[in-house]
## 1
Amino acid sequence: MNIAVLVKQVPDSADIKMDPKTGTLVREGVASVMNPDDRLALEAALGLKDALGGTLTALSMGPPQAVDVLSEALAMGADRGVLLSDRNFAGADTWATSYTLGRALEALMATAPLDLVVCGRQASDGDTAQIGPQVAEHLGWPQVTYAERLEMADGELLVWRRLTGGVEKVACPLPAVVTVLALERLPRWPRVGRLLWACGDKAPIESWNAADIAAPARLTGLRGSLTQVVKTFSPKSERATRWLEGGSVEQARDLVNGLRALKLL
Ligand SMILES: Cc1cc2nc3c(=O)[nH]c(=O)nc-3n(C[C@H](O)[C@H](O)[C@H](O)COP(=O)(O)OP(=O)(O)OC[C@H]3O[C@@H](n4cnc5c(N)ncnc54)[C@H](O)[C@@H]3O)c2cc1C
């Protein structure tokens, strides 16, 4: 089974800040890691590869330093990494991102067929959960979202989907796109030997630009984006907490006076 896993490098922080002038993520001073859902996607794909054999290619679009998530993917068990990096790809919205990833998947399939594309459900920075479904649409393949377990049976992919209040089991013909939300097991740790190989000069990681995937500039990056960030800002917290001191009588008086001052009584 030949699988591609989409992995994104994200800031290692839940405290995502936007530059109000440029409308882009502030990445300076924040360490980068593999998107947590993508580690689950990799583990799910590696589980299939362990059981069935085949190849696993990790694919990422990002700046040159995003090569680190591909090294990590190789160290975990991927066979090959492809980094999509080109000035033309900068500033992409989800439409342009999924177009670019879709073109790269088509370029991969020019040399060997792919049976399955696995992504994380959601990136922890962009947070839209649109890329998986959009890539499926680009390829014209069926998609299954919210996966927590994958198995092959009688040539079909069985997917257990985690839904609110239950689990749904579906069968899906291949090729298909699956987005992974959770797993019953933890993602595996890289083995030291593989880690050294994956970070070395001989690691099978290629860098592709727009020409390599025949992606015209008008369809990628900011130019190819159908949406435009008009303004970004952090929401201001309008709530303030005031603790009432003293005994219950003083507190009740203080509360009534406070509510009167706010013209709420
Ligand atoms: C107008 C506009 C301009 C933008 N400009 C910038 C910008 O200048 N710089 C910037 O950093 N962001 C920018 N963004 C954000 C960027 O569009 C998103 O980060 C990106 O499209 C992916 O969407 P997401 O993060 O919501 O991914 P989700 O849809 O939440 O991700 C789901 C899954 O898709 C896969 N995936 C997502 N992105 C990638 C990727 N790049 N490579 C491989 N797999 C991936 C992963 O498996 C991930 O788990 C911009 C967004 C808009 C709307």
Note: The chain has a mean pLDDT of 93.
## 2
Amino acid sequence: MYHSYTETSLKYDPDRCINCKRCTQVCPHAVFAEGKEHVELARPAACMECGACAKNCPVQAIEVQSGVGCAWAMIGAALRGKDMDTECSCGGEDGCCGGNSPT
Ligand code: SF4
Ligand code: SF4
């Protein structure tokens, strides 16, 4: 069964996970953490919807709508040379990512 998180479009089904740990290696925000039987969603609110985890998961245990969140805003702002705050659609009170970035 998928678990979805209101902060982002990220959905993860631990029952499908084969514990290959690819998602822990590709995620830039350490959203997934290693676990005994399957990975754990350690920081779901830190997801910037880049889509790397879902693309690298061999069993489709992860779904995310990439291109709709902060990553899209950051890329768009960089291309336009504009301030990201005017582009971001994440809804966070503290600006893009709502202060959820790891550093
Ligand atoms: S979509 Fe990107 S930021 Fe979000 S959990 Fe997957 S790899 Fe991490
Ligand atoms: S990439 Fe998929 S199968 Fe591999 S650890 Fe992550 S969720 Fe599990």
Note: Strands lie at 3-4, 11-12, 32-33, 40-41, 62-63.
## 3
Amino acid sequence: MPRAPRRSSVNDSATASEKAVAIALLPWFVLTARDLPWRRTQDPYAIWISEIMLQQTQVKTVIPYWQRWMEAFPTVEALASARSDRVLKLWEGLGYYSRARNIHRAAVEIRDQHDARFPTDHATVLELPGIGPYTAGAICSIAYNQPAPILDGNVIRVLCRVWAVPGDPRSGKTNALLWDLATRLVKATQLFPPQHAPALAGNCSALNQAFMELGALVCTPRDPACSSCPLQAVCKAHRTRRVARYPRAVKRVKATPRRFQVFVVQSGDGVWVGRRVDGGANAGLWEFPGVELAEGMPSEPAEDFLRWAGIRPTGLDALLEVKHSITRFRILTMGHRVHLALTLRTRLEGAQILLGWSEARWVNGETLEALPLSAAHSRIRAAWREACVGPDGRKGRQDPIQTRFRG
Ligand code: SF4
């Protein structure tokens, strides 16, 4: 992860090459920038939400999430007053839920300590929960046009290629060098000749967004479009035909496989769900009960359920297998629908302690829909809904709790 920028150990003023980059990049950005909803505002709150959502997530995925979020919580105050379940529900599917929890905590801090006004000072922004050097730089440059540098994966790739930076961008020395470069570049906008385009001179917001845009659309990790790049004439990697060398490849850690059995337990008019305890993975989210299978252990759903809950289910259907990766884990989640006699409910409730839940409930179909679940459990919920067969023989349309069980 990029470190906080420190005061430059090299000359802090922009050099000719940084000026040349600013002169080539700014007009390109003005002509080609995508019309994204968060680019139509200078509200620091709206920009902050977009920047956090865009971490690890593609633009096309973020757009509807950002729009729903801004509709639900148009101001910091509205967000600070919201219940955490509602905040997590609007984040459902984006993953890395600590981002949503930090946004919520930061909103409360802004309301209580800054009079509900988003701070304008870079150092104060940096102190808010979940805001690191990149996000603080993005908010301060885009919303306030401050000469604050940014450095994310896209920007690192462009800088490493244009200046042929040989080191590992995650090492302390190279990372500090890149922050210095990003700082000088954002200051270089002051050198943009105002007679050509007055709006671009000193436009720190456009410069930083131009780097993000170039990294996302042109200077991509594989097959960069050098022939249509505005920096082609100044790019050292391109000039020396060594684009593939930059940035230096980081050795990937081998992914560890993990397998989970997850059970949508249906009994009478309810489905049993629980809420993850604070402080752990997926804190505050709701989920179906489940069990992780030890490495090499054969998987037999009915036996796994029995082993975990101490109860033999009266019916069991396979629903869906979900594969996804989180950090260094490659996860397979196998979802099943289980029917349980009413008399066995209390036996099942006794197993809550094993699940890392702070609370558990039997909920109807409507409540289940409204609860925030992790991405894998949310897909299993959708598969369960689809698998339910109504009294008229139609699938997935009725309140699933009122429907027949196939198992
Ligand atoms: S010329 Fe190619 S390698 Fe250099 S910045 Fe442009 S797209 Fe990236």
Note: The first strand starts at residue 256 and ends at 267.
## 4
Amino acid sequence: MCPFLDTASASHPALIDSNHALQQSILATVPDAMVVIDEAGTILLFSDAACRMFGYDASEAVGQNVRGLMPNPDRDRHDHYMRHYMETGEAHVIGIGRITTARRRDGSTFPIELAVGEARGDSGRLFTGFIRDLTEMRRAERRLADLQAELSHISRVSAMGSLASALAHELNQPLTAISSYAEGARALLGEDGTPAAGDIDMVRDALAEASGQALRAGQIVRRLREFISRGESERSVERLRRLVTEAAALALTGAGPSNIDFEIRLDPTVDRVLVDRIQIQQVLFNLIRNAVEAMQSASRQRLAVYSQHLPSAKGAAGLVKVTVADSGPGLAPAVAAVLFQPFNTSKAKGMGLGLSICRTIVEAHGGRIWAEASEFGGTAFHFTLEIAEEPQDD
Ligand SMILES: Nc1ncnc2c1ncn2[C@@H]1O[C@H](COP(=O)(O)OP(=O)(O)O)[C@@H](O)[C@H]1O
Ligand SMILES: [Mg+2]
């Protein structure tokens, strides 16, 4: 083979120059922090945005192992994660993306959204990570602020707990009335079931009263429902991934500094659900906050939100089961018995309303919510949602 041709095709100076220039311009302009690593985790490329985000110069970062950009436990485990992926092909981040935490040069940590893609280079695989700072990204902040404003109707939902007990009291009146009208009518029917001629009208009146009271009870229940759902149904086709990512960012952002190893693992075959977005995000928010609070003194803090398609028998699109799993202490038996009832809390400052609100919302959507032990040795809350029928667009 002609050595001249060989070298010319592989490394023509003009080609190297233009490749290099292209690479430099990409690194300088890509808006997200971009980090390219090899199979060993060594940083090959480090974009300008990454320099600003992490506080390293590109010249310092290149050649270092990427785990330096992570807090523990990921830092110690990253080599293992990569080996595991190479050996099994089982991805936890690659092609999926997740919200996790990163570590700046000065040791401070911050929440990020990480997306990792994979490419095959001449000398093995390359992994490209795109990183968004969830605390600094102004767009995300605005989005969070918007969400926060929308979620202010939570306080309204929270008031539901106290309203519920007032309504329970109110419901007692028609129920007592129904019972005494029915009892009266039964007495008027007499021993042999044939009322005296003059009593027939009274029986009829008593039954009319009883049915009127039953309607009133129904109205009271409906009022409670309307109050919770803001009086109008706002269901629309939403993407589960968006609901989860936003609710998680919100729940984790306000939860204070932590070392949570967090992952979102959504079933790629289901994404669209027909829901009231704010309400379902409220459910996710409550469950994630509870999980974070439960893990406060756990040595290993693992949190995962995942979904699973539950196909239905025939025709219909079926259900999706959404799970929030933690590595906390699990449910105390006394708590488990009254889990979804309002005003049950084991926390000094707890209201004990979160889970009862979750149940009201999930059931109003035709779903079910329950708790089990989680794969991480803590608690897993599951709830189901109906999958939206095939989308019209996009
Ligand atoms: N992930 C969890 N792990 C352990 N216990 C939990 C978890 N989620 C909820 N609980 C228990 O259920 C109780 C009720 O939760 P909730 O209704 O959200 O009210 P609150 O959070 O105000 O206490 C909590 O106080 C806690 O004891
Ligand atoms: Mg709670």
Note: The longest strand covers residues 109-121.
